[in-house]
Amino acid sequence: MPEKNWPPCRPVIYHNIQEEIVDPNSCQTVEQSYKLWLSILVTSFTGRYSPISVIGQLILALVYILLWPIFDFIARHLTLYRAYKDDNLSYFRWFFLVTLLDIIFGVFIGIGWVFGGGGGLIEMVTNFKAIHEKGAIAIVAGVFNAVCATLVFAQVVMHIMLWRKVHAYIESKGWTILPGK
């Protein structure tokens, strides 16, 4: 068993995409998955701040910052990593399930239906409507909301692109996502 090397600050797992995934196309797909996870980290920190938030939203935002990136890394990225490494259809199926959940969650976050919409389109519209009452702070909040929604929807698109790429690989092997077919 190779020595644990990830995360660099306190290694708990062995993670080396280039060494363990031999096929160049598969390696590129898993690297794309890892970069998508890194973008989730960035988005979770940029999108959870709103200048007119309350303490409850701040607490929920901290939970969101801690849970989504960890869940995404373990359940989506590492599952895809293992699927390509072991060429295992069960791991690919788990990847598709978790990616579907990620896409749905991203749409809900981007629109602003989750946790009161602190960073979504609904809150952005609300902030821009409140410019006459609240002034410049509403503009700043609206811009933060717009940036967050844009980043989240970009991630949804990247998840869909990754889904399609992995699905094409599955089809090239003659496999199917649904069991029993």
TrEMBL record:
InterPro entries: SCAMP. The chain crosses the membrane at residues 54-74, 94-116, 136-163. Pfam families: SCAMP. Keywords: Membrane, Transmembrane, Transmembrane helix. Its main location: membrane. It is found in: Membrane. It is a multi-pass membrane protein. One of its GO terms (biological process) is protein transport. It comes from the Eukaryota. One of its GO terms (cellular component) is trans-Golgi network membrane. This is 24403_t:CDS:1. It comes from Dentiscutata erythropus.
